[in-house]
Amino acid sequence: MQAFAFRSSRITAAFALGLSVALSVPAIARDATAQDMKFSFPLACSLGEDCWITRYMDRGEGLDVADYTCRKNTENSHKGTDIAVANMERMRSGVPVLAASNGTVLRFRDGMADISAKKQGADALKGRECGNALILDHGNGWQTQYCHLKRGSLKVKEGDIVTAGDTVAQIGLSGETEYPHLHFMVRKEGLDIDPFDGGAFERGCSTDTKGLWANPIPYQKSILLPVQFGAGAPTSDTVWESGAPTLSISSEALILTARAFHVRRADLWHFEIRDPHGRLFLEKKKLINKDRQFHFQYFGRKKPKGGFTPGIWTGTVRIAPNSGEPITQITKIEVKP
Q: Which of 6, 150, 253, 323 has its CA 20 to 30 A from that of 115?
């Protein structure tokens, strides 16, 4: 059984600079004081079912790290909201990125490959951390920015007028990222704004302002992505690929993998694998020893003598957070003769 601490990708001000947008930040501005804008969700997905918020804006001042609830589901200097899909297969199938409000295309970039930043290195991505990207101008000083778009998926060009909900691109893996997600940013007169409560980047997590979402979006405290079976142990390079559709009785191993965001010290992970007769085949509990933004864990067994029993196998992963309600994911796989 192996654990892995994810190397997070920091979203920096270079995103805006890389798209050649000149921004001026008011020296004394604190929040989006003019609550004259509402934004729709920028992805065509069902939050909590096939997409998840994996990182919020950093609201902590200086070196402090805090999201808008004053929890730590972010990282230092993170200026936007990250929304992920389950795996590369889902990304390849095409997940529409949507205009969050009516506006005009101000800038865009395309042509960068959908390759993990681990394989390219920071130097190769310097000044292009946002990857394939798009900036929309909504008038009255409001802008939105969309990063890590799939190469060749942009459907608009500079000067195009868009309506809220229009498909403008697809989610991708371009730029400084190691997993498929959209990095979504909001600005008011050059100031980075958190759409969850209208507060400003690194200006404190306690505000009396209102959120900017047209429909309220619930806070996601802990995230357990869909669990999956495979015939081999995942690595940091393969953990974002989809699981095996089926296995055979002669497969080399039966491995159950879980991936989670916002992992906290003292969370308890419980793995359980049952054979086609419902009998307990394997069980394992793992106590997390430190906070992690992302963590994956796998558990399984090599092929027994005579092979695996044919039929439908069931894998269950349950995370009991050190605070909050338990979360569970269940998956099934057919083992063929």
A: 253
Nearest to 42 by CA among 137, 125, 113, 146: 146
Q: How far apart are the first and last CA of the chain?
A: 27
Phi, psi (degrees; rounded to nearest 5) at 15: -60, -50
279 and 188, same domain (yes or no): no
Percent of the chain clearing pLDDT 70 (strictly above): 89
CATH, residue 269: 2.60.40.10
DSSP code string of 215-279: S-------EEPPPEEESS---TTTTTSPPPSEEETT-SEEEEEEEEEEE-TT-EEEEEEE-TTS-
> 323 falls in which pLDDT band (50, 70, 90)?
confident
230 and 158, same domain (yes or no): no
Distance separating alpha carbons of residues 188 and 31, to the nearest angstrom: 9
Q: What DSSP string runs through 19-80?
A: TT------SS--B-------B--SBSS-BTTTBEEEEPPP--STT----TTSS-SS-TT--S
3-state percent helix, strand, coil for the chain, nearest multiple of 5 = 5, 40, 55
Claim to verify: residue 171 and residue 260 sit in the same structural domain: no
Cα distance between residue 258 and residue 298, in whole Å: 6
Indicate if 32 and 181 belong to the same structural domain: yes
Domain that holds residue 38: 8-193
**Residue-wise pLDDT tens digits, 164-185:** 999 999 999 999 999 999 999 9
Residues 148, 181 contacting (CB under 8 angstroms): yes
